[in-house]
Amino acid sequence: MRFASRRERRDLRRPRWGRGGLASRGHTDMSDVQAAPQVVEPYPLSNLRHSVAHLMASAVGKLFPGAKFGFGPDIEHGFYYDFDLSEPLTDKDLRRIEKEMRKIAKRSPEIVREEVTREEARKRLTEWGQDYKLEALELIPEGEAISFYGHGSGAEAWADLCEGPHVAGFQSLDFHFKLLSIAGAYWRGSEENPMMQRIYGTAFWSKEQLDEHLEWLEEVKLRDHRRLGAELDLFSTHADAGAGFVFWHPNLGVVRREIEAMWWDEHTRGGYKPVYTPHVSRESLFAVSGHLENYGEMMYAPMDLDEHPYRVKPMNCPGHVLIYKDRGRSYRELPLRWAELGTVYRNERSGVVHGMLRVRGFTQDDAHIFCTIDQLADEIAGVCRMVDKFLTTFGFEYTAYLATRPADKTIGEDEVWERATEALRQAAESIDLPLVLDEGGGAFYGPKIDYKIKDALGREWQNSTVQCDFNLPERFDLHYTDTDGMQKRPIMVHRAILGSLERFVGGLIEHFGGKFPFWCAPTQVALIPIREEHADYCRTLEEKLAGELFRVDAMLEPGHMNKKIKHAQKEQVPFMLIAGERERDEGTVAVRRRGTREQEVVKFDDFLARIRELRATKAIGLDG
RNA sequence: GCUGCUGUAGCUCAGUGGUAGAGCACUUCCUUGGUAAGGAAGAGGUCGCGGGUUCAAGUCCCGCCAGCAGCUCCA
User: In Å, what is the separation between the CA of A351 and the C1' of B56?
Assistant: First the structure.
């Protein structure tokens, strides 16, 4: 599971140059160029943002003479612009630039478009010393219009090689913007290229919308799993252990165990059998599988055992294949469904590790299905049903994508590709799962269905995947004896529902904001006596709860009730049971539900029945 | 890996060359309190690690480690 990367969210793969504006600083007076084409109000938000990106670039150009400009498009939540500057920008510069933007906006009644010839464009950009722009100019296909968009006059005049469209001008428009952050970004997105400085910002038509967006960003920060991980004592990472290695604390260990228990239950129900495979194998295994060749950069360096190189596994599939190959297989055995919570290690580049979401050692909820092509549709349908079960249990909305054969560098017969892709389609249809087509998005070894989920904050993640594989069976020469006695090649299906426990649970922390559903909450019930003399009653309640394997924190130590309430609240404990004389005498408890301040006095047995229900149904909320 | 920034008590942070600070959390004592901070006292820091400059380094310089915002890449 993963966040759809910022890159995806910003949709940069879309050809961008024209829309995104290749900007450049101009010193010509724009007053004599032709007026912009009529843009009818209201402008799309993307136009505004793109125009504000221009505004920002012009301010940067004014404040930092000699600035060179890269790309500056609008993106999902705002815009950015890349600059090549002689000195690094700081947050203080952002405020300065904002101020300058407001000034320029006031003096810029209109944004004007000017169409020029390629020669003229080249001449201008050369004159302005805009190297990146010149390169960008060459990206514009022959025959397409080449235009500049400019605003400001006199010393402030500024123009941008850009296709548009833009708003007509800044002066008379009511809009609101904020510059948010500075980061490095490679020119044209390639690490071969020089790094530029990128400024991110956002803009809206109303102050309210801007504020709302800024609040959303705050909420994202508050729910950050790294922050909650420390606050709720969930996990840690350590310089002493190295970057990208997660230590699960007891609180999160509980969450994981609950999820794993559900996972094994569902897999048992789905006809999967557990397998366990070693973390280390001889290097030659990964040579056969092809991982060494295609994935070698991600693998840890070999270690020497008895003068043979060994490797830590980056994937579980070769191990499962060895089990398959251990003896001959008959069609009668298929499909074989083998599941493993397999821990793998991958050498992620140092700059990418991120809390629990991007780590160097993680546990995949892996399984492989060995089946015939005729069984494929049913098998896929089974996986999709299981995906639905998990995603809805955690309250995620999702979209499934059918990724078909890539244009080149694939392996496998045309016919097999077609039949497998058709099987994926049929499977989805049989369970009424709509598929969005991702043409050519498959792996080189087979078509697949990928899932994207939406979390409570509306962010998209990718986690579940079902992939057909024609490659590994080939490489390992897998076969089974068919009804006619002939040796046939099975298809292998790789699938992960959660992706990795680390990424999934890290995502869950943010999705729930630390308020885990009752069934997997680290502590489910806190017992708080009003006075010390009520501790005995609490103790009897504790025994009953613990006897039914509920996770109870009996806060019986001396101290103030209010302090304990505050503590339990901070720990996001679903239920606090507060008990004094009245409760003890009546066999009741005062129940305080997470997130509320009201209490409800109920018979303890009624409470017990309620939480049994919550646990059994894996309800997300605490009602009912 | 790359660009920029950061690293001081468990947490949030102050401390710009001259003997380490605050709030919260923690411990102890007092407080017996009916639903989110009662009072007092106390403990807690190799200032990320290693070098260098200096009479003197948390503070300046270099290297490493880790983290943060991104880029690139990914479960």
Answer: 38
Q: Give the residue nearest to nucleotide B71 (CA to C1').
A: A185
Residue A297, CA: closest nucleotide via C1'?
Answer: B73
Q: Which residue is nearest to nucleotide B5 (CA to C1')?
A: A90
A362/B51 CA-to-C1' distance in Å: 36
Structure tokens at A325: 């190959």
* All residues at 6 or more sequence positions from A12 whose CB lies less than 8 Å from its CB, including other chains: A73, A75, A189
How many Å apart are A18 CA and B36 C1'? Answer: 55
pLDDT tens digits, A533-552: 899 999 999 999 999 999 99
Whether the model pTM is above 0.80 = yes
- Rounded mean pLDDT of A84-88? 89
Q: Whose C1' is closest to the CA of A193: which nucleotide?
A: B2
Query: What residue is closest to B69 (Cα–C1')?
Result: A183
Alpha carbons A236 and A252: distance in angstroms, whole number: 10
Annotated catalytic residues of A are 317, 346, 364, 366, 368, 448, 494
**Nucleotide with C1' nearest the A578 CA:** B35
Residue written as token pair 């800024």: A214
The residue whose two tokens read 């724009």 is: A30
Q: Give per-residue pLDDT as tens, A352-362.
A: 999 999 999 99
Show the tokens assigned to A530.
């009003």
Closest residue (CA) to C1' of nucleotide B70 is: A183
State, as a whole number of angstroms, the distance between the CA of A381 and the C1' of B15: 63
CB A386 within 8 A of CB A270: yes
Per-residue model confidence (pLDDT) at position A31: 33
Q: Which nucleotides of B are covered by protein (CB under 7 A)?
A: 1-5, 7, 11-12, 26, 31-38, 48, 65-75
A290 CA – B4 C1', rounded, Å: 38
What are A258-295's pLDDT values in tens digits? 999 999 999 999 999 999 999 999 999 999 999 998 89
Taking residues A179-206, report their average pLDDT.
93
Torsion sign over Cα A352, A355, A360, A366:
negative
Short-list A563, A588, A567, A566, CA closest to A578: A588
Of A478, A495, A376, residue with least CA distance to A424: A376
CB A491 within 8 A of CB A417: no
At residue A624 the predicted structure's pLDDT band, cuts being 50, 70 and 90, is: low
In this structure, chain A runs to a length of 624
Residue A105 β-bridge partners = none
Residue A333 has phi, psi (to 5 degrees) of -80, -25
| Dihedral angle sign, alpha carbons of residues A219, A500, A407, A437 | negative
Identity at A136, one-letter amino acid code: A
Nearest partner of A109 among A72, A69, A152, judged by Cα:
A152
Band (pLDDT 50/70/90 cuts) for residue A14 is very low
Distances (CA, A) of A403 to A385, A398, A415, A442: 18, 16, 17, 4
- Determine the Cα angle at A315 with ends A329 and A469, to 5°: 50
Nucleotide nearest to A230 (CA to C1'): B11
- pLDDT of the residue at A40: 43
Whether the per-residue pLDDT at A586 is higher than 80: the answer is: yes
